[in-house]
């Protein structure tokens, strides 16, 4: 879900940045990305050159999830505020208020 939220917020996610922000192992993150790609929700874009860069973006089908993702995150923000759970700088992209 956080991967999809990152794509919704930025338009794309990058492997290493997502790995760092989520504190996920590369193997687990790669598994999740492949599953989302296999489900037709995201597309992998490889760029030539050094350093190697790979972006993940929504497919047209994946874009249909945006209203659902936003509804879940509105609920999540409300719950975090009610429970006084702080939003950290590193995870703020995933937990911004949605208007």
UniProtKB/TrEMBL annotation:
GO MF annotation: an example: DNA binding
Signal peptide: none
Domain HTH hxlR-type residue range list: 1-84
InterPro entries referenced in this protein's UniProt entry, alphabetically: HTH_HxlR, WH-like_DNA-bd_sf, WH_DNA-bd_sf
Transcription regulation recorded as keyword: yes
Gene3D superfamilies: Winged helix-like DNA-binding domain superfamily/Winged helix DNA-binding domain (1.10.10.10)
Keywords in alphabetical order: DNA-binding, Transcription, Transcription regulation
Protein name stated in the entry: HxlR family transcriptional regulator
Annotated organism of origin: Pectinatus cerevisiiphilus
Top-level taxonomy: Bacteria, Bacillati, Bacillota, Negativicutes, Selenomonadales
């Amino acid at each position: 879900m956080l991967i999809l939220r990152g794509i919704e917020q930025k338009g794309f996610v990058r492997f290493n940045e997502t790995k760092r922000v989520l504190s996920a192992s590369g193997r687990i993150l790669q598994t999740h990305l492949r599953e989302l790609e296999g489900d037709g929700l995201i597309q992998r874009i490889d760029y030539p050159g050094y350093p190697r860069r790979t972006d993940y973006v929504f497919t047209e089908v994946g874009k249909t999830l945006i209203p659902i993702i936003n509804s879940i995150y509105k609920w999540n923000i409300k719950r975090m505020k009610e429970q006084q759970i702080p939003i950290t700088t590193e995870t703020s992209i995933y937990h911004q208020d949605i208007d």
